[in-house]
Design a protein that fits this description.
This protein is mainly beta. It has helices at residues 21-26, 132-140, 174-183, 272-275, 293-308, 320-323; strands at 5-12, 17-18, 27-35, 41-47, 72-79, 82-97, 106-113, 123-126, 148-152, 169-172, 188-193, 200-205, 214-218, 227-234, 240-247, 254-258, 270-271, 281-284, 312-319, 332-336, 344-356, 359-368, 370-371.
């Protein structure tokens, strides 16, 4: 590992144990990707060979019981004396790449975070009198063996279903159902490892845009520079307003529904809405049958909020040892040195870690709803 970085690796079927020296010596590289959409993933690549009596019939490493599909893998790193859980996941794939060149054969193990186990069984389930937040708590409670700590943020408007009128029904896997419930409000659902090994945090709520920002990313600032490369894009077609009508299930009257701007806390001084008016895409609100006015308005607002999340996108790469920390997805980070239009705070949508001997790089994607820094200064 690069200087100042120490890797800890646990493997096993139920309770993972420290990886033996034989595995660690053959470990060539590790990659981990975290995103606020879908499952996070990991990949481990090992050097393999068939030298000696043990390799007459097969590559010895392929017979290791620790690398079998559906074993649990916990990766953590210590960078500058600060421990971080990088991944808590399940092995799902194996790939062997034999080579005619000595020492060039590789064995790759791929997996996803523990939420993959929530996507294994499609089921039909009823939730009498339970709103979306209570449904989320009930589902997450059944996965306690993976150390899930649920964080469920109630939507701005809640309308608990009256059992005499309707009963929410799930016709999907638990993961698909949680993600579908989240999309109604422009929310996200993901599982993130930590804060300690063998514990995971299951988050159902809005993208985290109110938080302490991480150490700033710096561009073109001489010795303070910690970003290797970065580029910015502005999508003028992303902002979307939503309009339509709903026959309120409570009053049986038809009411108009219209959105005008995002309700997310702003990260820019010139958000695309309202600055792009009147050149903003307009969408019709879809099926509203059986919804109350508040439910229909919440779903329309969620569509608008999601459309503004990625008006401005920044993609880049950094060296973790030079950055002096690990950039974490699903939070805030400050950026400086790019000029007023693109300086300021961003939401970290995804981060990919690439670790090999002597190197630890991170590729990242940042997003926000417009240009212009909110503050003239970003704290380093």
């Amino acid at each position: 590992m690069p200087g100042g970085v120490h890797l800890n690796l646990l493997l096993g079927p139920t309770v993972p144990v420290p990886a033996p020296p034989m595995l660690l010596e053959r470990l060539e590289s590790i990659s981990v990707t975290h995103s606020d959409q879908g499952r996070s993933g990991f990949q481990m690549t090992f050097h393999v060979g068939r030298a000696g009596p043990g390799g007459v019939l097969d590559y010895p490493l392929l017979n290791s019981p620790l690398l079998r599909p559906f074993n649990r893998v916990v990766m953590s790193v210590v960078l500058n004396a600060v421990p971080r859980v990088l991944m808590d996941g399940i092995i799902t794939h194996q790939q062997l790449n034999p080579s005619n060149d000595p020492g060039a054969s590789t064995f790759t193990v791929t997996g996803e975070d523990v939420s993959v186990m929530m996507d294994m069984e499609e089921k039909t389930a009823e939730f009498p009198a339970l709103d979306e937040t209570l449904q989320a708590y009930l589902i997450l409670g059944s996965y306690a063996k993976y150390g899930l700590l649920p964080i469920v943020i109630p939507p701005p408007t809640l309308d608990p279903p009256n059992p005499l009128e309707r009963t929410p029904v799930q016709h999907a896997t638990d993961l698909q159902h949680l993600q579908a419930l989240a999309r109604r409000y422009g929310y996200v659902f993901y599982v993130t490892p930590g804060p300690v090994p063998l514990v995971n945090t299951a988050y159902w709520g809005p993208p985290v845009r109110v938080d302490l920002p991480q150490r700033a990313l710096s561009i073109g600032m001489g010795p303070e520079t910690n970003v290797s490369s970065i580029n910015f894009s502005y999508n003028g077609l992303a902002p979307t307003t939503v309009s339509g009508s709903v026959q309120d299930s409570l009053t049986n009257t038809t009411l108009p529904v219209q959105t005008f701007a995002s309700l997310r806390p702003p990260l820019s001084s010139q958000p695309a809405l309202p600055f792009n008016l009147p050149h903003v895409r307009q969408r019709m609100l879809g099926d509203t049958e059986g919804l109350s006015y508040l439910q229909a308005l919440a779903r329309a607002q969620g569509m608008t909020d999601r459309s503004l999340d990625e008006v401005v996108t920044a993609s880049g790469e950094l060296d973790a040892t030079r950055y002096g920390n690990l950039l974490q997805a699903r939070g805030l980070v400050g950026l400086r040195g790019a000029g007023y239009s693109y300086d300021g705070f961003y939401y970290v949508k995804s981060v990919s870690h690439s670790i090999r001997t002597g190197s630890y790089t991170q590729r990242f994607t940042l997003t926000r709803e417009g240009v212009g820094a909110l503050s003239p200064v970003v704290i380093p």
